[in-house]
């Protein structure tokens, strides 16, 4: 398997399986001199961790990261940063009965076809457990971006047909204040009425032994104009790749997204204006990029996540020999009724990883 790394200059390589001894990430290309410690990473991991409430998986991982290298006297050295996160609550016995069954919506069939083997315990390498490593890497990226005045925030935009009519910009322009509001919510929705409706939708779905999809929206604030490269390294193209690499993601859009296909140019064009002695646009249908390069406006993306594939309903499938089987999760299995909830900090992390890489790439090619 050769596809475990992401990034050009600021590069992460994740490793480990859902029910292995540990998972982790190696970060290469991190500049020297930035404050970094275990607490900074663990604070971010706590938001992604399972078991926060009844609307997420009951798997109770402590998710305590330990920095093994690349930091000296509390600051990054420029050397590779290696981070380990121990698995402490895997409970592999629940998966033994599923070893030879093709699970609907899961990757065991495609992994078996490609590699001839598959770790059936919790999905192995294909498990969303891997996203803890992304959040750890994203925590490092966000620390550097914050020092540059760039903030990345995300929230749960919709669950099923229940959608927030509000934007994060309605909460102001200070990323730290917006993030605090988002994280007060058990499902990362900072708008109380919408939050209550979403919770009701999730609880109803859960009571029916089913799962439901959702959409996560992320915004990057104070990104200067000029980040990103045209043609094959477009900022929006790298954001799309980042988001669609997240387990269970099924759709990506930036700015007006698919709505642009229903608009006229006179309505979609963002008009340039001079505001506060800066060139800005009166609207932001482009979502903060033009020609693959940041405009200085907020970068706004949305990522659609499918319903969790692991549901407590009996389904038809076949075993590895093609024999028909009736498949149902074994008693004691623990899964998210809406995977989009815990995807919120993952989307945030992936956006930060794309932006920090774009910033470093920009330093190589920008005009003097």
Number of domains: 1
- At CATH level 2, the architecture is 4-Layer Sandwich
Helical run tally: 8
Tell me about the biggest sheet? 5 strands, antiparallel
Question: How many strand segments?
Answer: 18
Return residue spans where pLDDT drops below 50 for at least 5 consecutive residues. Answer: none
- Separation of termini? 41 Å
Structural class: alpha+beta
Identify the strand order in the major beta sheet.
1-2-3-7-4
Strand content: 15-25%
Q: Name the helicity range.
A: 25-40%
Q: Kindly report the name of the CATH homologous superfamily.
A: Chorismate synthase AroC
**Alpha-carbon Rg, integer:** 21 Å
Secondary-structure map:
Elements: E1 5-6, E2 11-16, E3 22-28, H1 38-48, E4 65-69, E5 71-72, E6 75-76, E7 81-86, H2 108-115, H3 131-147, E8 151-159, E9 162-163, H4 175-184, H5 192-207, E10 214-221, H6 235-244, E11 249-254, H7 265-268, E12 272-275, E13 278-281, E14 289-290, E15 293-294, E16 299-305, E17 315-318, E18 324-327, H8 340-365
Antiparallel strand pairs: 1-2, 2-3, 3-7, 4-7, 5-6, 8-9, 8-10, 10-16, 11-16, 12-13, 14-15, 17-18
Describe this structure in a few short sentences.
The protein is of the alpha+beta class. The two termini are 41 Å apart.
Task: Describe this structure as you would to a colleague.
The structure is a single chain. The chain is α+β, with helices and mostly antiparallel strands and 368 residues long. The protein has one domain: Chorismate synthase AroC (Chorismate synthase, AroC fold). Helices cover 28% and strands 22% of the residues. The protein has eight helices and 18 strands. The protein has helices at residues 38-48, 108-115, 131-147, 175-184, 192-207, 235-244, 265-268, 340-365; strands at residues 5-6, 11-16, 22-28, 65-69, 71-72, 75-76, 81-86, 151-159, 162-163, 214-221, 249-254, 272-275, 278-281, 289-290, 293-294, 299-305, 315-318, 324-327. The strands form six sheets. The protein has a five-stranded antiparallel sheet. Strands 9-8-10-16-11 form a five-stranded antiparallel sheet. β8 and β9 (162-163) form a beta hairpin. The longest helix has 26 residues, at 340-365. The radius of gyration is 21 Å and the shape is globular. The two termini are 41 Å apart.
